[in-house]
# Entry
Amino acid sequence: MAPSIVVDSVSKRFTLRRVRRLQERLVRAVRGEDLSNTVQALHGVSLRVERGESVALMGLNGSGKSTLLKLISGVMPPDTGSVRVGGRVAGLIDVGAGLHPDLTGRQNIYLNAAILGMTEAEIRRKFDEIVAFAGIRRFLDTEVKFYSSGMFMRLGFSVAVHTEPDVFLIDEILAVGDPPFRRSCHARIQELRKQGHTLVIVAHDTNMLRQLCDRGIVLHEGEVVYDGGINEAAAYVADNVDRNGVSNRVR
# Structure
């Protein structure tokens, strides 16, 4: 059986501008000073995720985890290398990113679900489940710009998890929202895992990752420094990844 995700020698670089004011930019340009800063987010990363695997991307902030997740989701292309994903992908990289503030909750369900690949028939069939999970029945025909942040997150999450994705990508969503919302998210992700969906999760809560994932991939400064069982990966992070960096590397 073909793998769900194949990342082959992927690199990604971002250019950040140091100076924003026009006057400063002109002065620096006259002096011949560099106006930007290049950051290499990923360096030749390769990995393979089999169907039905639950994988945690681990490491410090700035290690490349979220960038890699965005490449897998198709939000951005790699500079070099390739990313291949099999099946329908649903990404909770930025919950609510597909929601339009001037549309109602009802309209946004149809819009966001269509963006995530659901047909109109699928949306109608899942509509009541999406609304019930999100808990927005009373505000279904209210523009979402009037929703609280919690309602906004619940709606975005509910639409995504009801698309029945083959590959489900999650970036720190379980660290936001109130406790009941986090518990609901956790339970729903466990259901997806038991059903054999492929999961790739970015989070800093290693206890939660141990519950949701079988495998851990540790990134440091844009490179894979460890790939193994989730318990071993968590121990590796605890022992080797700190403010001083990585003391040794396991490939």
Observations:
- Residues 179-194 form the longest helix (16 residues).
- The chain has a mean pLDDT of 86.
- The chain has two domains: 1-87+167-251, 96-165.
